Automatic annotation (TrEMBL):
It comes from the Bacteria. InterPro entries: Apc4-like_WD40_dom, Quinoprotein_ADH-like_sf, WD40/YVTN_repeat-like_dom_sf, WD40_rpt. This is WD40 repeat domain-containing protein. Residues 262-326 form the Anaphase-promoting complex subunit 4-like WD40 domain. PANTHER family: F-BOX AND WD REPEAT DOMAIN CONTAINING 7, WD40 REPEAT PROTEIN. The keyword Endoplasmic reticulum does not apply. It holds the Pfam family WD40. Keywords: Repeat, WD repeat.
Length: 328
């Protein structure tokens, strides 16, 4: 079994991420802990609500109950990106050209590298944000669908409608698909490169619980999801994505729910975190499983691979965190 370097923190830990080969752990209290020649701490928020790794830069982006948005560097330095007094910032996204998006209430905001701020009002509260891989285009998930905005123009948004509450959103790496998590224990997808008038909807249903974690495989062939007693992995390699195809079910454990999924940065290997703190690694090709961590004190709340793919950081709602060395 791989070696595990434990890190016990106080209280709920919201997320675990790597910047290069340095692991970071973000607590609900608002502190950011990193293991860099010993444990170092950054005091970021008075109550942290979200912490993501910016897919476009080697930084983290955080939002908190104090209405602040920070960018956290590899050295732990916190740079204030935006502030909205008396608002809770629970939705953030990182984009191309150092753009940062955040939302509160019925508006999303994009702060660009030059400091300019653009607001995109919606008819309903925004629950998720994501940037497309190319061009400054942002998706805002809301009740009854998603709005797509080009940040640099005043063009009207493209509205993708589907009834129900959409609680998170992600673009496929190649930009051909958009997928949302839903309150109704389902995923919903749209094919973005279809001809006008085509039925572009993709319904991915049958989950016993809400999906709260999604991860694309390195080349976008697969989309892994939590919300079941196995990682549900949908095929996206064909031109119509998962339409008409059954998903893979990886790491099945009777009645023990998957809470986090994270694909390896280079290989089709999936890390799966469970509600009882256990972590499995599963290879897509032959579905072979490897135990990476035995059950712990709390549900896994974060999983992240290092840039080299040799280390896996994990966090839990009970504060027992750590790093798994799979090369050991």
């Amino acid at each position: 079994m791989p070696t595990v370097a434990p890190l016990d923190l106080q209280g709920h830990v919201v997320a675990a991420h790597f910047l290069g080969d340095i692991p970071f752990f973000a607590t609900a209290a608002g502190t950011i802990h990193r293991l860099d020649s010993g444990e170092k701490v950054t005091e970021a928020h008075q109550g942290l609500l979200t912490c993501i790794r910016d897919p476009f830069s080697p930084t983290l982006i955080t939002g908190g109950e104090d209405g602040k948005v920070f960018r956290i560097g590899k050295d732990g330095a916190a740079t204030l990106v935006a502030e909205a007094p008396r608002k809770w910032i629970s939705v953030v996204a990182g984009g191309p050209q150092n753009a940062v998006a955040y939302a509160h209430g019925k508006s999303s905001f994009v702060r660009q590298n030059d400091g300019s701020l653009k607001e995109f009002p919606e008819s309903r509260s925004i629950e998720g944000l994501a940037f497309a891989a190319k061009g400054l285009r942002i998706a805002a998930a809301r009740y009854n669908g998603v709005s797509l905005h080009w940040v640099g123009t005043n063009a009207p948004p493209v509205d993708l409608e589907w009834k129900g509450a959409h609680t998170g959103v992600t673009f496929s790496p190649d930009g051909r698909f958009l997928v949302t998590m839903m309150q109704e224990n389902a995923l919903h997808g749209w094919k973005l490169d279809g001809k006008p008038g085509e039925n572009r909807h993709m319904r991915m249903t049958g989950y016993p619980a809400k999906v709260k974690s999604l991860s694309w495989s390195p080349k976008g062939k697969w989309l892994a999801s939590s919300g079941a007693p196995a990682a549900i992995v949908w095929p996206f390699s064909s031109k119509d994505g998962p339409m008409g195809k059954a998903p893979l079910e990886l790491g099945t454990r009777a009645n023990i729910m998957v809470t986090q999924v994270a694909f390896h940065p280079a290989e089709e290997v999936l890390a799966i975190g469970f509600i009882d703190g256990m972590i499995l690694g599963v290879r897509i090709a032959d579905q072979k499983e490897a135990l990476l961590r035995r059950p712990g004190n709390g549900a896994i709340t974060g999983l992240s691979w290092s840039a080299s793919g040799k280390l896996l950081a994990f966090s839990s709602e009970a504060g027992d965190c750590g790093v798994v060395d799979i090369s050991a």
